[in-house]
Every structure is written in C-alpha cells, then in structure tokens.
Amino acid sequence: MRAAPAGPVDYLLRTSTVVDSEFELVYLAVTRLAQGAYPHARAALDAAHDAWTRAVLDEVGDPVVARAVVLISDGLYAHAALTSSPPATGAGTGGGPTSDAGTEEPLAFRAPRPGEDVDDLLTLVREVVAMRNARTTDGV
C-alpha cells in the first residue's frame, strides 16, 4: 500500500471495490476467527487496520481525514461485497422509490461497483485535505 505509485489513499480506495479475491477470503476468515475465541486473530486485524490508517495518515497529514478515508474504504467494500453477485431470481430490487407505473426509478447516486473507478472520491479527498490545510495555515 505504501509502495503504490499513486499513494496509499488511491490504493486503498481503488482496492476497496475489489471482492472475491484471495485477500478477501483470508480477511473474512481472520475476521470470523476474531469474532470467536481467537485473540491472535483480533490482534492481527487490529494491526492491519492500524497500518492502513497510519499509511493514509502519512499521506493526508490529518487524523480526521485519515479516519474518513478509511471509513469511505469500509463503505466501498461493504457495498461491493453486497453487490458482487446478482440477486436470486424473484428477489426484490431493494425497495427504492417507485414511479406511478410501479417500476423502480434509478437513483441519482450509485456507489462504485467492484473494480470501478473511484476518481471522484479521490478528488474529494484531495479537496478536503487542501481545505483543511488552508484552514490550518490561515490560523483558523
């Protein structure tokens, strides 16, 4: 992550939409172990999350922004994991708003699907970092 050419934030957000990988299988297995009576699994997860957060913090220089980036990453992963396989035949479509004709209307916002680009989120992170840096240098 630290060695990624575009930096840790770019790497973290882009890889957060990738599911069904060997890494995800191992991560899920360790997560399940950590939920049980395996303190070493919990320690391994804590160390991994700490390393990710520190790498992001080193890039953005702001602990609040670093936490926000990690939480965005978590949300991207959760959404990608839930949408990685199509719903079963006959399953509902999610209970979104419906038109008068009874068909579901498309949402104005759609989170990135697995492997999709997250350039707009990366731009947002850069803008937030710049705003917070400007606020700090202005003495606010």
List keywords for this structure.
140 residues; mainly alpha
Proportion of residues in extended strands: under 5%
Q: Alpha-carbon distance between the termini?
A: 32 Å
Please state the overall shape, judged from the principal axes of the Cα atoms. globular
The string of secondary-structure elements, in order, is HHHHH
Work out the radius of gyration. Answer: 18 Å
Number of discrete helical segments: 5
Low-confidence stretches: 86-99
Could you tell me the mean pLDDT?
Answer: 83
DSSP, total strands: 0
Descriptive overview:
The chain is built from five helices and no strands. It is mostly helical and 140 residues long. It has one domain (8-85, 115-137). It is globular, with a radius of gyration of 18 Å. Residues 86-99 have low confidence and may be disordered.
